[in-house]
């Protein structure tokens, strides 16, 4: 039986509404929303470089990283931004330093087999020197960690510390990335080596940052240094032509995003924590 004319007239408005709601139905043009752009403040890293592209194309995770709850609480000295929480983070960071030292040795597996014996020996010697320097820095870091003039954490606390699961995951992930070679492994470290100075700069400019605290003295002020991020950016740029293409950029971008997430989670794992002897 066909629909009566009156029933068809009643249904027509409903049909029109349904058609307009279909996913493929065209919608009226709206205002163009410009893409979100994450500002960088390092004056020595040029626009258009690899670091610049990675930073600006991942603004969602960059923003979370820059505004992580741990450094924000420490800077503003909120109830969760305690001295014990800061001490807890520094103990974890000390173990990050020591546990990542072997990664440079792992990179030797990716040496070009076509290089001469002399070139390979030179690379090995350079790696040994780098690792020695890293261990010396870690020893200096531990000295400040336990010094009454700095963070005043007891040696027994450092020795008996339990590592955060995110720290173990992060270190293992970085170690695994050495199989990708120096270029991609270094990109995995960009949020730490380049990004910390951006956090420090932002907090140093903030009116809510409380001055004269251990956080400012021990973390913020020492990280107001652009040179480490600049150096790595230059090194990556120097080998960019030999390493970068559409495929490797996608891999690099994925590694950068993962590293941002790890760094943010690592910071926030110390939020409100207390150290135990």
TrEMBL record:
Residues forming coiled coils: none
Record has Iron-sulfur as a keyword: no
Domain Thiaminase-2/PQQC: 80-271
Protein name per UniProt: TENA THI-4 family
Keywords: Signal
Signal peptide: 1-21
Any single GO BP term: thiamine metabolic process
């Amino acid at each position: 039986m066909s629909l009566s004319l009156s029933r068809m007239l009643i249904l027509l408005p409903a049909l029109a509404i349904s058609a307009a709601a279909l996913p493929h139905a065209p919608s009226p043009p709206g205002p163009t929303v410009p893409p979100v752009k994450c500002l960088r403040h390092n004056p020595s890293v040029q626009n258009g470089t690899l670091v610049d592209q990675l930073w600006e194309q991942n603004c969602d995770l960059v923003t979370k990283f820059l505004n992580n709850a741990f450094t924000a609480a420490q800077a503003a000295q909120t109830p969760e931004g305690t001295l014990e929480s800061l001490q807890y983070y520094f103990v974890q960071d000390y173990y990050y330093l020591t546990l990542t030292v072997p990664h440079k040795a792992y990179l030797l597996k990716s040496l070009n087999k076509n290089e001469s014996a002399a070139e390979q020996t030179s690379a090995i010697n350079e790696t040994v020197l780098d690792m020695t320097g890293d261990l010396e820095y870690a020893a200096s870091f531990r000295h400040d960690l336990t010094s009454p003039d700095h963070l005043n954490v007891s040696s027994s606390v450092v020795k008996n510390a339990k590592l955060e699961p995110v720290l173990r995951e992060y270190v293992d992930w970085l170690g695994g990335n050495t199989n990708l070679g120096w270029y991609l492994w270094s990109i995995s470290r960009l949020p730490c080596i380049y990004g910390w100075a951006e956090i420090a700069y932002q907090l140093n400019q903030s009116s809510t940052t409380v001055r004269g605290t251990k956080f400012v003295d021990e973390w913020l002020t020492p990280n107001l240094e652009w040179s480490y991020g600049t150096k790595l950016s230059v090194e990556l740029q120097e080998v960019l032509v030999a390493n970068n293409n559409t495929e490797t950029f996608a891999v690099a971008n994925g590694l950068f995003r993962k590293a941002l997430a790890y760094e943010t989670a690592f910071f926030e794992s110390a939020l409100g924590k207390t150290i135990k002897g």
